Amino acid sequence: MARPHLPILAAALAFLAGPTPAQRAAEPPKHGAPPPFFNGVTPEQGAFYAAGGATVEHHRDAAQELAEARLLQAQLAALQPQRKGQVDAYVIAVALDSDGVFAREAREAGRVLAQRYGAQGRTITLAGPDGRGGATLPRGSPAHLDMALARVAELIDRQEDVLILYTTSHGAPFGLVYNYGDEGWGVVSPARLDALLDALRIKRRLLMVSACFSGIFVPALATGDTAILTASSGDRTSFGCQADSDWTFFGDALINQALRKPQSLDAAGKEAAALIGRWEAQGKLTPSLPQMLIGERAKAWLAVLDARAPKAASQPVGRPAVSLLEKN
């Protein structure tokens, strides 16, 4: 009998054995069990615990957790110090849900914002696996977001520098939902994020929140030194969060299109809102009503950051969010 060709034999055995642990780890964990705890308390109790940063984490392998901690520490340690006399931007892009669309959106948002605002070396992305073979990154979670913000607070000059925070996840009327497969649940409420930024004394901030009901963050976090854009008003859902998509409507319109262009944040926000409105009308969807508020003092440092925008627009990537409407 002829000797089998070894590469072909190896490939056949690998197929029969199924994916390796490394390959399985590259897939975003799937949601299965319903979230515990928050469904069993009153809205008032839920708001109280969410404001305190309550989360549920369980069934985590100790060796995997150590590897995860090392991933996070490597990103935190790699952040470069601020430069005296310059308005340095520090970007954090975080996917708080393990559905692949959020990981893919956060990863590209980190790249676009770093390029636009000259934040290479000062950007951290918390996104977990994206299901498309992207680089291994620490997962997005409230605890990891807390540590990333604390590290930025250590590095910045609070009189000069700016935090740029992009979050993407599912949302609820009481905040951003953290749901990492069946291993982690929690909520980042407006009160929690506001208290955290105040405690860290991060005053100059550009906040972009992609989630249903995300407009609830506007009144809670609005200051003269804050610019905030959200995917919806506080009582509306937003769209495009199917797990196999590359973008939510808000992420595609704002990050993948408007902020790739040489225009101000104000113009980009208006362009994104108009584009989302057209997509929603096309799909006969209830308007999400994206929100934008730019504080008076924020306009000065935004002008400095906007001046760094690329002189020519870059091309959008991924499958357009509006392609979801073609399936209906």
Question: Can you put this structure into words, describing what you see?
Answer:
It is a single chain. With 328 residues, the chain is of the alpha/beta class. It has eleven helices and ten strands. The strands form two sheets. Strands 3-2-4-8-9-10 form a six-stranded mixed beta sheet, with helices on both faces. A four-stranded antiparallel beta sheet has the order 1-7-6-5. The N and C termini lie far apart (55 Å). The N terminus is likely disordered.
Features:
single chain, 328 residues, alpha/beta, six-stranded mixed β-sheet, four-stranded antiparallel β-sheet, 11 helices, 38% helix, globular, disordered N terminus
